[in-house]
Amino acid sequence: MRSAMTLLEELLPEEFNTKEDVLEQLEIKEKEFYPDGIAHCHYCNGEDIVCLEVLGAGDGPLFWLCQGCGELHLMKGPRKTRTLLKKAYGSFTNPKTWGYNSSEDYN
Ligand SMILES: [Zn+2]
User: Fold this and answer.
1) 32, 47, 83, 95: least buried by Cβ within 10 Å?
2) pLDDT at residue number 30
3) Are 62 and 21 in contact (CB under 8 A)?
């Protein structure tokens, strides 16, 4: 099985909202998860599947990524996946947060 690595920013929509369900925003429709892999994509039936690791989201891959249609399939349970993803986006540096505290705003 080939593997790939990505930044969470690459997967999430630009308007990502940390208060809403991260899996919904990743457009993961399935509740099922597949610790042992999937033989083919459940959307396009493609067999070109790689395991995808998200930087900062724990050790090891989180998803099965279909190279054909780009759909993600869960490797771990939804709750576990949310917890691990939260670790990744919790470490984002938000430039707006920094700008907000700029001393120039108070002059
Ligand atoms: Zn597919």
Assistant:
1) 95
2) 83
3) no
Measured between alpha carbons, how far is 43 from 69 in angstroms, rounded to an integer? 8
Neighbours of ion ligand 1 (CB under 5 A): 41, 43-44, 46, 66, 68-69, 71
The proportion of the chain whose per-residue pLDDT surpasses 90, expressed as a percent, equals 64
Would strands 3-6 and 72-74 be described as parallel, antiparallel, or unpaired? unpaired
C-alpha distance from residue 68 to each of 8, 43, 64 (Å):
20, 10, 12
How many CA atoms within 13 Å lie on the side-chain side of 3? 11
Decide: pTM greater than 0.70.
Answer: yes
Q: How far is the CA of 49 from the centre of ligand 1 (A)?
A: 8
Residue extents of the structural domains in the chain? 3-12+21-92
Measured in Å, residue 57 CA sits from the centre of ligand 1 at 23
